[in-house]
């Protein structure tokens, strides 16, 4: 298994909840080993009311939230509680979620479609912005989503990881949960698109951190009923997936970005 506990770590999550869901055990293990561990939520910016599309309003209704200002406050407080549970810090960058970037995206089909030149330009911009943050350490291991399920924001952050790897940083991509739990074939589909940029996968054992990871996921109260609508027991589904990944002992799998 991969030992990631000897270096500081930076987790680049597109949205509040992505890191806890996909690699919360690894976040907690690095913090427990006494290394600095930071989560940066990239698309957590202020919402401009005029840019809240009817598609975003539909998303809010599924989360039982109606006031856009309240959405940001609640999602940040959930994110802060999860970070405290995992033992790391969290910073929110000012970019809005793609569902709040005007009419960029008007349906779930577009939300999960290929990224365009604007998306790639945004990934380049993020490389510059991230490497100027006070948390940034050139020696840190950087974690990004593999973008299984192809959400646009996840693909943009994966491309940011590619840009950072090109600059010589050590970058790993996590398997996006719960997407990979309810749609396991999504991993193979995503690998077909990006296999050439990845090395062979590595496992990180998280058995000791598993319950802490589940407590961190529970902090995202507005999200859990929606993202885990395929199960009535998110803890059991997440535990079972982690033990299946590790062949009996809970683990999270990461793909080195070349
Ligand atoms: Zn996300």
Walk me through this protein's architecture:
The protein is α/β, with parallel strands linked by helices. Helix content is 45%, strand content 13%. Helix 3 runs antiparallel to helix 9 (210-218). The model has no long low-confidence stretch (mean pLDDT 89). The protein has a 7-stranded mixed sheet, sandwiched between helices. It is globular, with a radius of gyration of 17 Å. It has one domain (9-256): Rossmann fold (3-Layer(aba) Sandwich). It has helices at 18-32, 54-62, 68-86, 108-111, 117-130, 152-166, 179-182, 185-194, 210-218, 224-227, 234-245, and strands at 9-13, 37-41, 89-92, 141-145, 170-174, 202-205, 251-256. Helix 6 (152-166) links the parallel strand 4 (141-145) and strand 5 (170-174). Bound molecules: zinc ion. Zinc ion binds next to loops.
Give the integer mean of the pLDDT values: 89
Q: What form results from the Cα inertia axes?
A: globular
CATH topology heading: Rossmann fold
Strand content: 5-15%
The N- and C-terminal alpha carbons lie at a distance of 19 Å
Tell me what the CATH architecture is.
3-Layer(aba) Sandwich
What is the topology, as strand order, of the major beta sheet? 3-2-1-4-5-7-6
The largest sheet, given as strand count, sense and whether it forms a barrel, is: 7 strands, mixed
CATH superfamily: LmbE-like
Radius of gyration, whole Å: 17 Å
Structural class: alpha/beta
Percentage of residues assigned to helices: 40-55%
Number of helices: 11
- What is bound: which ligands? zinc ion
The count of strands amounts to 7
Order of helices and strands: EHEHHEHHEHEHHEHHHE
Number of domains: 1
Q: At the first level of CATH, what is the class?
A: Alpha Beta
- Which spans of ≥5 residues are poorly predicted at pLDDT below 50? none
């Amino acid at each position: 298994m991969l030992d990631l506990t000897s270096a500081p770590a930076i987790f680049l999550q597109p949205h509040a909840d992505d890191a806890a869901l996909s690699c919360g055990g690894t976040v907690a293990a690095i913090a427990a080993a006494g290394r600095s561990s930071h989560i940066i939520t990239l698309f957590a910016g202020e919402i401009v009311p005029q840019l809240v599309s009817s598609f975003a309003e539909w998303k809010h209704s599924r989360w039982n939230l109606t006031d856009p200002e309240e959405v940001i406050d609640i999602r940040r407080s959930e994110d802060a509680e999860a970070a405290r549970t995992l033992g790391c810090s969290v910073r929110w960058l000012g970019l809005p979620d793609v569902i709040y970037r005007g009419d960029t995206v008007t349906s779930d089909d577009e939300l999960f479609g290929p990224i365009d030149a604007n998306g790639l330009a945004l990934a380049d911009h993020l490389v510059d912005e991230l490497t100027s943050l006070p948390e940034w350490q050139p020696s840190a291991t950087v974690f990004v989503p593999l973008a299984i399920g192809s959400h646009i924001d996840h693909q943009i952050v994966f491309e940011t990881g590619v840009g950072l790897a090109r600059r010589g940083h050590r970058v790993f991509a996590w398997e996006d949960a719960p997407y990979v739990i309810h749609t396991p074939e999504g991993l193979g589909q995503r690998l077909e698109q990006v296999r050439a940029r990845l090395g062979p996968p590595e496992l990180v054992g998280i058995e000791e951190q598993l319950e802490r990871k589940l407590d961190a996921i529970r902090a995202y109260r507005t999200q859990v009923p929606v993202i885990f609508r395929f199960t009535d027991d998110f803890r059991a589904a997440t535990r079972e997936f982690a033990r299946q990944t590790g062949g009996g002992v809970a683990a999270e799998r990461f793909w080195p970005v070349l």
